[in-house]
UniProtKB/TrEMBL annotation, chain A:
Protein name: Transcription factor zinc-finger domain-containing protein
Transcription factor zinc-finger domain span: 3-40
Ranges for region Disordered: 47-68
Domain of life: Bacteria
InterPro entries: TF_Znf
Automatic annotation (TrEMBL), chain B:
SUPFAM superfamilies: Protein kinase-like (PK-like)
Species in which this protein is naturally found: Microbispora siamensis
InterPro entries: Aminoglycoside_PTrfase, Kinase-like_dom_sf
Ranges where the Aminoglycoside phosphotransferase domain occurs: 28-225
A Pfam family hit: APH
Name used for this protein in its record: Aminoglycoside phosphotransferase
Domain of life: Bacteria
Amino acid sequence: MECPKCRGRMRTFDRNGVHIEQCDNCRGIFLDYGELETLTRMESQWAQQHYAPPPPAHGGPAWGGHHGGHYGHRRNSWVGMLFSS
Amino acid sequence: MIEELARLARRDGPVTVLKQTRVLVVRAGDVVVKAHPPDTDEHALRARLDAAANLPGVMLPPLGLQRLDGRLVTIWPAGEPLTMADVDAGTTPWEEGGRLLALLHARRAPAGLPPAGGPSRLPRAMADLAAAGVPDQVAAPIRAAYATLPQVREGGALTHGDWHLGQIVRHDGAWLLIDPDDLGPGDPAWDLARPAAWYAAGLLDPRDWERFLTAYLAAGGTAVSAGDPWRELDGPARALTVQLAATAVATAARAGEPPDDAAEALVSACVRIVAATEAET
């Protein structure tokens, strides 16, 4: 198909069931009916699964570890460690 | 000993044992009485109590020093400690901790005060690791990380020496630091190193760590640079990681239990310290 904006050639991509046309010339993207909603839904699902706090403003050490994000739920020696020498 | 300590408090009211380890800490009425370990250096303790008495708004001032059965006993106003419920509720006053340490570090240590006790805890923890019968495969990464640690930097700032969340209390509505037993001149980054180690091990929520460090810097804290705090923190945080790992696995071994998640996280951090050191050289 032809780009409605610049008359360039549109190339078709399929990504996770979403049908996307992108113009080779102006890089503009054309979505079929309902596909913007599909993308929005997928984006919010991804964000829920992969939500992580923003990287710390003050950096970290080269040997820093992974932060799992379950800090409030650890019922082990960790909470006791907060209070002991 | 508990009853005799409570008598030293000269207060009516219920008597509660708050801690019974190398020290014995008893609360009686609105006073807390602490029996120090039998080998405590009296001269050093007196110097530290004097320093604590001269830090209004920063440290809880002592009420007195006595002797009981050859042990030194200090008497304190009872403050309201932070509890695990506060941590669970997310109301930990990280900002207050950072602010109080910044105020402390702004002071020069008075002459005659022995060095801060922070760095001396590490060899003790390693000795404890050796004595606790920890399996070699568990202890090996901790020993390997210990061998890579940089030298302790000297410093003249007044340093708490043993800071954690048990070392702040609310008294007359204000948060104050308690326990000057390790107070002295030193590298003040060691006071931030325990939370830094928790953070680097993935145990402390990065948001809590940022609250603490941001408040420390906002209050004029001098231990680290605002632009690159890990330049000063890295060495002490590595040391505390090794110390905390050694203590955690030794405690588990003594209880006849395998290391739990927190201990494993600290041992993993030791492995990463060794790898980072190899990458640096």
